[in-house]
Amino acid sequence: MASVLARRARGSAAAALWGAARGFASVGSDIVSAAPGVSLQKARSWDEGVATKFSTTPLKDIFHGKKVVIFGLPGAYTGVCSQAHVPSYKNNIDKLKAKGIDSVICVAVNDPYVLKGWAEKLQAKDAIEFYGDFDGSFHKSLDLEIDLSAALLGRRSHRWSAFVDNGKIKAFNVEKAPSEFKVSGAEVILDQI
Amino acid sequence: MAPISVGDSLPDGQLGWFDENDQLQQVSIHSLAAGKKVILFGVPGAFTPTCSNQHVPGFITQAEQLKAKGVDEILLISVNDPFVMKAWAKTYPENKHVKFLADGVGAYTKALGLELDLTEKGLGVRSRRFALLADNLKVTVANIEEGGQFTISGAEEILKAL
User: Fold this and answer.
1) Of A42, A97, B94, B141, whose CB count within 10 A is highest?
2) Interface pTM (ipTM) of the complex?
């Protein structure tokens, strides 16, 4: 499966200028203005959804006045995401907090109910806040969308991480292929904070 | 597309599935249903309450009785990706017969005319709750719910019709 993803990603990655101007998100840009009007959905149970009238969280509530480490991945319950990416942040949460990070956020193009189930399975709900970009608009605004239809996932997100200080992107790492896990882990970003 | 109804032919479509050997497959509905008696039931979303706690368990526990009445396949579809469907299936270790199929981008649900816009609930366009019985691709029973309730689309209703 990983090879399917890599083959597919290389095809589109050839056109996606790695390193060069990455569309709307890059170091120095403001993550909230890059995605105007976009909200995310906190991972929750259906009952919690009903109780909050299915409310969503605007980006400014997540980023303004805070030091945030945020990472995005192709999909809940998939290989690298479950076995390497999330654990990397879960296991380094103390170091991240020691460096003054207010929240560690995981975002994926999944609905918030699937994400809650996954977060519980990975026992990561206490360390990490999980948010759903259920229609992909957050990742699309940041030019981090990728078509993973070959892996039967549809339009998803690249694997990436960022350190955002009061809305300003201070560090930004995107994997060359979603199946890779080289630059988007906790160890890398710890050095960039 | 008008919702599928009794007398219609089951359209063909590709669904994602992690098979018994944990291999990711694309299966065609026709290959699973042609020449056979199959139940196809659909839910709005994996890991949501009515789907998880009532609709799916009903078919899992009644599977033997359904098979005894001549049903060859019990197919569950949802507009979720195959990884999510596999993880959801794992929460039912007692399941022996229900196949959890992924209609990743909702193409098959659309072909059945059974889409339901649940965007405001954070789910996007999903499937209505339904249960169909098809004999050699001809729909003989079509129980389709209005909204998200669970009244006619369960295993009991299909058992009565067999």
Assistant:
1) A42
2) 0.88
pLDDT at A14 over 90: no
Please indicate whether, in this complex, the C-beta atoms of B87 and A54 are within 8 angstroms of each other.
no
In DSSP terms, B63 is beta-bridged to none
φ, ψ at B84 (rounded to 5°): -65, -40
C-alpha–C-alpha distance, residues A116 and B52, integer Å? 14
User: At a CB cut-off of 8 Å and minimum separation 6, what does A14 contact?
Assistant: none
Q: The dihedral of CA B22, B28, B34, B38: what is its sign?
A: positive
- pLDDT tens digits for range B23-69: 999 999 999 999 999 999 999 999 988 888 899 999 999 999 999 99
Contact B81/A111, CB-based, under 8 Å? Answer: no
- B10 closest CA partner among B31, B18, B25: B31
- Compute the distance between CA of residue B105 and CA of residue B14 in angstroms, rounded to an integer: 11
What global pTM score does this model have?
0.88
Residue A19 has pLDDT above 70, yes or no: no
Residue to substitute from A8, A152, A155, A157, interface B, most B β-carbons within 10 A: A152
Residue of chain B minimizing CA distance to A76: B84
CB contact under 8 A, B83 and A77: yes
What are the C-alpha distances in Å from B152 to residues B39, B44, B70, B113? 14, 15, 21, 18
Low-confidence ranges of chain B (pLDDT < 70): none
